[in-house]
């Protein structure tokens, strides 16, 4: 009886771990052609921006203001930045920016602990718009 319980426990644990592993990562199309994509890994939206860290952090700070977020932290260094804000519904938004080279930065957005893909995408579009991009969400596919 005890061995039967243990084998069931191992099988159920394996299935849950496999489901969690495969559901933790997805690509997010950002344009109609599908050429521009972001990665959504374990609640964190990650994208490469065509701007340096300084410009991206300024665009992010402006996006917080435009979206009605309260900026709690704005820590800028030469090649990276950390911005933290709160939405009107008190969700915590953390944006990390790391300069890859003089023309590109890695942007990661996390909403609360678990993440919110739709809200992260909305924040990304506003940042992209502030950097001179279209900032337009894609239409339904």
What does this protein look like?
With 141 residues, the protein is α+β, with helices and mostly antiparallel strands. 35% of the residues lie in helices and 34% in strands. It has one domain (26-130): TATA-Binding Protein, CATH 3.30.310. It has helices spanning 2-23, 53-66, 117-130; strands spanning 25-29, 37-41, 44-49, 70-76, 80-86, 92-101, 104-111. The longest helix has 22 residues, at 2-23.
Shape: globular
Written as H for each helix and E for each strand, in order along the chain, the element string is HEEEHEEEEH
Supply the number of helical segments.
3
Mean pLDDT: 81
Quantity of strands, as a count: 7
Instruction: Quickly name the level 1 CATH class.
Output: Alpha Beta
Helical percentage: 25-40%
- Note the beta-strand portion: 25-35%
Mind describing the biggest β-sheet? 7 strands, antiparallel
Total domain count: 1
- Fourth CATH level, the homologous superfamily: Kinase associated domain 1, KA1
Widest beta sheet: strand line-up: 1-2-3-7-6-5-4
Low-confidence stretches: 15-22
Distance between the termini: 52 Å
Summarize this entry quickly.
The chain has 141 residues and is an alpha+beta fold. It has three helices and seven strands; from the N terminus they run H-E-E-E-H-E-E-E-E-H.
């Amino acid at each position: 009886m005890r061995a039967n319980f243990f084998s069931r426990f191992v099988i159920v644990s394996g299935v849950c771990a496999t489901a969690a592993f495969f559901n933790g990562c997805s690509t997010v199309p950002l344009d109609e052609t599908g050429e521009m994509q972001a990665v959504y890994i374990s609640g964190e939206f990650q994208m490469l921006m065509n701007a340096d860290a300084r410009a991206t952090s300024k665009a992010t700070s402006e996006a917080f203001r435009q979206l009605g977020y309260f900026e709690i932290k704005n820590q800028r260094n030469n090649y990276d930045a950390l911005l933290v804000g709160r939405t009107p519904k008190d969700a915590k938004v953390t944006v990390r920016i790391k300069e890859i080279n003089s023309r590109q930065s890695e942007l990661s957005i996390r909403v609360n602990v678990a993440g919110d893909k739709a809200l992260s995408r909305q924040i990304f579009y506003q940042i992209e718009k502030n950097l001179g991009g279209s900032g337009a969400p894609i239409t339904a596919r």
